[in-house]
Amino acid sequence: MATDPKGSFVTRMRASLRLAWDRLQDLTTASPARFAVLVFAALILLFTGFLSLPAATATGTRAPFADALFTAVSTICVTGLTTVNMGTYWSPFGQVIIFIGVNVGAMGVLTLASILGLVISKRLGLRAKLIAAGDTNPMRAHGGVVNEGQTVRLGEVGVLLRTVALSTLVIEAVIAVLLYPSLLVGGVDPLTALWEAPYYAAMAFTNTGFSPNPDGILPFQYDYFFLTVMMAGVFLGSIGFPVIYTLWRHQWHVRHWTLHAKLTLITTVLLFFLGAAAFLALEFDNPETFGSRDAWDTVFQSFFLSAMTRSGGFSVVDIGELNGSSLLVGSMLMFVGGGSASTAGGIKVTTLAVLALAVWSEAKGRPSVQAFGRRIPSDVQRVALSVVAWGATIVALSTITIAHITKSPVEMVLFDVISGFATVGLSTGLTESLPDAGVYVMALTMFMGRIGTVTLAAAVAASSRSQLFALPVERPIVG
Fold first, then answer.
1. Closest C-alpha among 35, 202, 47 to residue 132
2. Least confident window among 18-32, 83-97, 254-268, 313-327
3. What is its main location (predicted)?
4. Are 323 and 220 in contact (CB under 8 A)?
5. CA angle 403, 431, 168 (to 5 degrees)
6. Alpha helix (H) ranges present in 52-141?
7. Which of these, 36, 257, 307, 454, could form a disulfide with 261 (CB 3.0-4.6 Å)?
8. Phi/psi at 478 (nearest 5 deg)?
9. C-beta of residue 28 within 8 angstroms of C-beta of residue 116
């Protein structure tokens, strides 16, 4: 009896594709952290391919692989660092690719993974909801039941995903409408302004910091309305989607705000004012930055710089001309970053708030860490400490490596490395002059900073193992 080789081959192919599809479905629910890392890595490779096309550059020649890869990482990780001039190097096609990339990357690792998982599985079951809630869950690095510390309840996950999409569209649209008149006043022709307004809006809300102009936002340095709108966009992007969801749902009923929302807003505003005060005190007499400006402009630009070091990435002064003390302050602000599940990077303001509350409780001799009538579990404190330790380790290794490669001053290297890790985008000028080896190290730093230290740790960990016994207690000497 004759067989059909072609039919047999088609059958095997269908079986192989079905097996691969089933494994992908299992991955979306069994290991959300690893799936999230895989999604971002795949997006980076895809956009590297797009930016490697000759049509993506203004000259029509193929971009070097290092520049295409670095720009793709900076785009998907919404960082804003670049090895080329964004306003002149990329063609309109390349700029559109970058615009799409920052909006895709801004949704966040686990949020994006949950949406793709929903597309694959065709439904939002319990495990898919756990993935979606993962970016707002302090226990996302651990197995087991999600506890009371979770910011968004599982029943609200669908609403959260809609909030992510709608808030991105609405906020960017409003910012673009507000920026359009300023662009016209600044001399941009009406047709070009129709493109640059949404571009700047996206770069502000996503906390990326790219600019379509060769001089960045320097032409608008005295347009305080333009700069204020940009700061507002950066602020809304940096507080995080769970906080936006809480504000939209409860508005000014502060009693109904979650503890996460309260800690995020209070810490963000506090660091905003403290950073502005520090820059004002350290730079008011620096003729290369604020020293040549009048009193009002100096105060305003201090606040603007403070806002941008939280993850915005825009600047109207030459960062390389800042005093060393200011670079250190900027590095500290960038390392903290913005809110959890936001477009900002860093270790997150809630991580700093939890550790500060733990130190305060220890100083006061309290048995537990408390805030606003709520107790913060010890496992959340351990996660916060782990985030800081992981972040500091990544920054230290990257700084040492790049400093060795470039032989540049350590303070400049540290600033750019933290800017990359915290996905800020400010630079002393070092990044544009990096050799290819340094470019790859910085790209890896940006990737690890964006996917999150907790997500990275969870993805690397093989599995969560339960221990059915307790070891004897012994207290080492600490301090």
1. 35
2. 18-32
3. membrane
4. no
5. 130
6. 65-76, 86-89, 92-105, 109-121, 126-134
7. 257
8. -120, 135
9. yes
Produce one character per residue of 125-147: b if its CB has 16 or more CB atoms within 10 Å, e if not.
eeebbbbbbbbbbbbbbbeeebe
Among 68-82, 429-443, 451-465, the least confident range: 451-465
DSSP state of 41: H
Identify the band that residue 474 occupies on the pLDDT scale cut at 50, 70 and 90.
Answer: confident
- Spatial distance between the Cα atoms of 244 and 258, rounded to a whole number of angstroms: 11
- Tokens 């009896």 belong to 1
Most confident of the following: 17-26, 246-255, 327-336: 327-336
Residue among 355, 353, 382, 386 at smallest CA distance from 455:
386
Residue pair 175/201 in contact (Cβ under 8 Å)? The answer is: yes
CB 344 within 8 A of CB 237: yes
**Roughly how many angstroms between the first and final C-alpha of the chain, as a whole number?**
83
How far is the C-alpha of 42 from the C-alpha of 81, rounded, in Å?
20
By the 10 Å C-beta count (0-12 exposed, 13-18 middle, 19+ buried), 283 is classed as buried
Contact assessment for residue 338 and residue 345, using Cβ atoms and an 8 Å cutoff:
yes
For residue 90, the SS3 value is strand
Q: pLDDT (tens digit, 9 = 90+) per residue, 40-94?
A: 888 999 999 999 999 999 999 999 999 999 999 999 998 999 999 998 999 999 9
Q: How far apart are CA 136 and CA 124, in angstroms?
A: 17
Residue 285 exposed, middle or buried by CB count within 10 Å (0-12, 13-18, 19+): exposed
Contact 40, 135 (CB under 8 A): no
413: amino acid identity, one letter: V
> Are the C-beta atoms of residues 432 and 438 closer than 8 Å to each other?
no
Buried b (16+ CB within 10 A) or exposed e, 404-430: ebbebeeebbbbbbbbbbbbbbbbbeb
Closest to 53 (Cα-Cα) out of 103, 87, 98, 83: 98
CA 88 – CA 58 distance, rounded (Å): 7
